[in-house]
Amino acid sequence: MKGNISTKTGDKGTTAIGGGQRVDKDDIRIECLGELDEANSTIGLLRSKLDAKHDWEEGLQRIQTEMMNLMSHVATPSSSVKKPQIPLPLGSAEWMETWLEEIEKTLSSVTEYFLLPGGNEISSLCHTSRTQIRRAERRLVTLNKIDPVDPSILKFVNRLSDLLFKLARQELLRNDITEERWRLFRNRPKSPDETRS
After folding, report:
1. Are 84 and 33 in contact (CB under 8 A)?
2. Percentage helix, strand, coil, to 5, in the chain?
3. Domains of the chain, start order
4. pLDDT in tens, 83-123
5. Which of 2, 38, 47, 67 has its CA 20 to 30 A from that of 138?
6. How far is CA 156 from CA 75, 140, 151, 190, in A?
7. What does the DSSP 8-state code read for residue 197?
């Protein structure tokens, strides 16, 4: 018998979370899940634009899988007796850092500039997903003030936004597309001690 996706149990504006509790659909936990789901969907769209043998494919597939895993943890309150059996993204931030370092070796040192998102479709999708991940991160920080979010999840989303920014730049470099610079970062003022030294 096929499962029915329309349970009608949410018709009055509530939905179930991990452990069986029901909450309003605008609950902060549901907001977090929605933002993560949106970002994951955009990464899926990004992957659909790449060749199956593209060197990003394996990494982006792993990221999407990890995002599904961590969403099961975000969906479950710390007070729930039933905990997710799916693993947390332990070590994923470090794995992404290694990827970031590999990308950095190929890029110019233009990071002192703000860059205009765009250039081509792939780069733009990287930026779109990056901004969605940043929004998800802001909502997770709010949730963390109410109910603890595992540190590995917060670290994962923070590192992922960095990675997507670098991927956007790498895409332009590979296609010989000039990055559009907006302006220089403002240098912080020197402290009195630094001025004297």
Report:
1. no
2. 55, 5, 40
3. 25-75+111-185 (1.20.1200.10)
4. 888 888 899 999 999 999 999 998 866 555 688 899 999 99
5. 47
6. 16, 12, 8, 33
7. -
